[in-house]
UniProtKB/TrEMBL annotation:
GO annotation, biological process: proteasomal ubiquitin-independent protein catabolic process; proteasome-mediated ubiquitin-dependent protein catabolic process
Function: Component of the proteasome, a multicatalytic proteinase complex which is characterized by its ability to cleave peptides with Arg, Phe, Tyr, Leu, and Glu adjacent to the leaving group at neutral or slightly basic pH. The proteasome has an ATP-dependent proteolytic activity.
Pfam families from the UniProt entry: Proteasome
Keywords: Cytoplasm, Hydrolase, Nucleus, Proteasome
Cellular localization per UniProt: Cytoplasm; Nucleus
Xref: PANTHER family: METALLOPROTEASE TLDD (PTHR32194), PROTEASOME SUBUNIT BETA TYPE-3 (PTHR32194:SF10)
Assembly mode: Component of the proteasome complex.
Protein name as catalogued: Proteasome subunit beta
Gene Ontology MF: a single term: hydrolase activity
GO cellular component: cytoplasm; nucleus; proteasome core complex, beta-subunit complex
Domain of life: Eukaryota
């Protein structure tokens, strides 16, 4: 889990939810790339982030893409965040004896506009959060910052500011993550993605 490094956080707001990640792809202390994708779109109301071993991030995102396409083909509708959380958990649990080294974070809005965030460990044990959820090598730093800054019923702009500050301050204290950030804020009207500049060292 500590080979490539990651910092991923999702937070609830008032009728909105946000998910953010760093952009570094490194091999232990050596930085290889600064635009590695760790957050993936399911549909405009649902995103997920994968923190962990980079090869498993790529493989698992393709497995999810296939399973989500099959779901849409069979059901004829977009998957809800809670259903996707269970799909992701069962996908990880299938490989429990030789697990994917990935800890997913899921953020989205339910049909009625209720914000939803959850995370899981590498064998799919679900953790439904009422405030925020974190993943990656910067987990402890993200918890500390999020506990300090997050408050209930944040609007989309305030939520963007809080999650950005949480991510940037946490990854500054973790040698294996960083090199910029990407933040997606999901509202009933759609999703907005913004890129953050950060310390490049």
């Amino acid at each position: 889990m500590d080979y490539n490094g990651a910092a991923i956080v999702a937070m609830k707001g008032k009728n909105c939810v946000a998910i953010a990640s760093d952009r570094r792809f490194g091999v232990q202390a050596q930085t290889v790339s600064t635009n590695f994708k760790k957050i993936f779109e399911v549909h405009p109301q649902l995103y997920y982030g994968l923190g962990g071993l980079a090869t498993d991030v790529l493989t698992l995102s393709e497995i999810f893409e296939y399973k989500l396409s099959m779901y849409k083909l069979r059901e004829g509708r977009d998957i809800s965040p809670k259903t996707f959380a269970n799909l992701a958990a069962s996908t990880l649990y299938e490989r429990r004896f030789g697990p994917w080294f990935v800890e997913p974070v899921i953020a989205g809005l339910e049909k009625d506009g209720t914000p939803f965030v959850c995370g899981m460990d590498l064998i799919g044990a679900l953790n439904f959060a009422t405030d925020f959820i974190v993943s990656g090598t910067a987990k402890e730093q993200l918890y500390g910052m999020a506990e300090s800054l997050w408050e209930p019923d944040l609007g989309p702009e305030d939520l963007f500011e809080i999650i950005s500050q949480t991510l940037l301050n946490a990854q500054d204290r973790d040698a294996l993550s960083g090199w910029g950030g990407v933040v997606t804020v999901i509202t009933p009207e759609g999703a907005t993605t913004r890129y953050l500049k950060s310390r490049m060292d």
